[in-house]
């Protein structure tokens, strides 16, 4: 049984007068297993948040169904199993970070002592230890996002549904969030995340699906979707010019088409992260 299963999910939003207006989801099906990070990618307005809200039991579909560990969203069993982070997660502005997590602990049924210990452990885990006593009101978008994820972690759910967890985070924050998500996967949790930025989820997802207009365009592992099997890249070190010229000549002699031969470019993200790391050391 998959941890999360959408089958033939459709949702039409009607306007105030009940006239048919927007079809947000149009027969969306997908499934996420335990120990898997599944990324839902699509432009703004493609239906990602609508699908997640249905899975969290906040709205009902017009057709199709969702199952969370075999339970319907909205039931007690599904609620207990699910940790949902909405795209605009709302935190109480006058509480500080520690109080926020203690409150969520109390709501999840923890004792005072348990809630206090859990709050401190989670603050450390999401990198907000130093901001424990600061009011949420003054938090940056990225800090709010991290605290939002911490609130979801309080009840130790099996299934995570995180709507745009990396939105508003700087590259380092995004990397830390992805490390946290990978850690949850390694604990055997099922994680469904979304993004409208294509590169954002690349190095954390086991599977991805692209949607537009509420319909699935393609789905698969990154290997299946992105591997270019028509060409081959060979990296050598050191970049000895004479040896490389000989290799190229040999390749041509063997009837291969030499399409490119150059030093690879680092990504801007890799460059930035290296720069930060180097700066920390000095
Ligand atoms: N409560 C609502 N009432 C009317 N239309 C809505 C509502 N929620 C979402 N929509 C519409 O449904 C479509 C999908 O929205 P959404 O699921 O938020 O997309 P995404 O999260 O991919 O950006 C959009 O056209 C949006 O305007
Ligand atoms: Mg959205």
**The CATH top-level class label of the largest domain:** Alpha Beta
- Unreliable sequence segments: none
Report the total helices.
9
User: Main β-sheet, in a few words?
Assistant: 6 strands, mixed
Bound molecules: adenosine-5'-diphosphate, magnesium ion
> What is the helix content?
25-40%
Oligomeric form of this entry? single chain
So what's the overall shape? globular
Number of separate structural domains: 2
Task: List how many beta strands DSSP finds.
Answer: 9
Strand content: 15-25%
End-to-end distance: 51 Å
Please tell me the CATH architecture of the largest domain by its name.
Answer: 3-Layer(aba) Sandwich
CATH-assigned fold name of the largest domain = Rossmann fold
Structural class: alpha/beta
CATH homology group of the largest domain: P-loop containing nucleotide triphosphate hydrolases
Strand line-up of the largest beta sheet = 5-6-7-3-8-9
Q: What is the string of SSEs from the N terminus onward? A: EEEHEHEHHHEHEEEHHH
Radius of gyration: 23 Å
Mean pLDDT rating: 91
Report what the structure shows.
With 282 residues, the protein is α/β, with parallel strands linked by helices. The chain folds into 2 domains: 4-226, Rossmann fold (3-Layer(aba) Sandwich), CATH 3.40.50.300; 241-281, no CATH class. Helix content is 35%, strand content 22%. Helix 6 links the parallel strand 6 and strand 7 (190-195). Helix 3 (97-107) packs across helix 4 (112-125). The longest helix has 16 residues, at 171-186. The chain is globular, with a radius of gyration of 23 Å. The chain binds adenosine-5'-diphosphate (ADP) and magnesium ion. Magnesium ion is lined by residues 48-49, 87, 163.
């Amino acid at each position: 049984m998959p941890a999360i299963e959408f089958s033939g999910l459709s949702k039409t939003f009607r306007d105030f007068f009940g006239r048919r207006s927007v079809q947000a989801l149009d027969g969306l099906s997908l499934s996420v297993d335990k120990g898997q990070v599944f990324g839902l990618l699509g432009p703004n307005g493609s239906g990602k948040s609508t699908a997640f809200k249905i899975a969290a039991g906040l709205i009902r579909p017009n057709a199709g169904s969702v199952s969370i560990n075999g339970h319907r969203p909205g039931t007690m069993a599904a609620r207990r199993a699910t940790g949902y982070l909405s795209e605009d997660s709302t935190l109480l502005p006058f509480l500080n970070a520690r109080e926020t997590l203690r409150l969520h602990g109390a709501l999840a049924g923890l004792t005072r002592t348990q809630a206090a210990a859990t709050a401190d452990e989670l603050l450390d885990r999401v990198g907000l230890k130093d901001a424990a006593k600061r009011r949420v009101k003054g938090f940056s978008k990225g800090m709010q996002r991290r605290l939002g994820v911490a609130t979801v972690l309080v009840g130790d759910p099996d299934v995570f549904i995180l709507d745009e967890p990396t939105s508003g985070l700087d590259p380092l924050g995004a990397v830390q969030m992805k490390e946290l998500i990978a850690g949850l996967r390694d604990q055997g949790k099922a994680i469904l995340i979304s993004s409208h930025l294509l590169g954002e989820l690349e190095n954390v997802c086991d599977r991805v699906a692209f949607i537009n207009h509420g319909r699935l365009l393609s789905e698969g592992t990154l290997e299946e979707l992105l591997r270019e099997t028509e060409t081959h890249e060979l990296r050598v070190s050191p970049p000895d010019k004479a040896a490389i010229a000989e290799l190229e000549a040999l390749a041509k002699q063997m009837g291969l088409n030499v399409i490119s031969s150059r030093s690879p470019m680092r990504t801007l993200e890799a460059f930035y992260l290296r720069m930060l790391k180097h700066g920390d050391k000095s």
